[in-house]
Amino acid sequence: MPPWLRLLKMAFHAPFREKLGWRDESRLTFRVWPNDLDVNLHMNNARYLAMMDIGRFDLAIRCGFAGLVWREKLKPVVASALVRFRRSLAPFQTFTLRSRVIGWDEKWLFIEHRIESRGDLYCHAVVKALLLGRAGGWPTAELLRSLAVQAPATEIPDWLAHWQAAEGGLRG
């Protein structure tokens, strides 16, 4: 099934699924189809990232900030990703994508994605994303306020702060 069709299917079903809180986890189940495969006959690395996009959209819809994105004409943008592939997903294998917000600062949201099957972790990733408006990045404080979430301005696990610092060396 192509990613755009999976996205449409998720978008249709999301409003009927349980609402999620700011820190709750979205869980979606998929199957590896032949068009997901690479030359090694396992799921293509890029397809993992496409699936994670769908997980973030499900999270946005079910957490309630998709409406804000629509009203304010914001664009969800991923700036970077830290991805670890642990096992290969085979043709027709089912898997679960788990997505949740694990941290934020004044500008960025950090969203964790876990792809699991048969009780094993296949891929673990964290993406650094923001909501982009006409005037630039939408402040995280505005997002939290719009969701009526009482939370500190910044909440980043220590290991994530180290990744962010290391990422600073990539600027060129």
TrEMBL record:
Pfam family of the protein (one): 4HBT_2
Signal peptide bounds: none
Protein name (record): Acyl-CoA thioesterase FadM
Organism: Rhodoblastus acidophilus (Rhodopseudomonas acidophila)
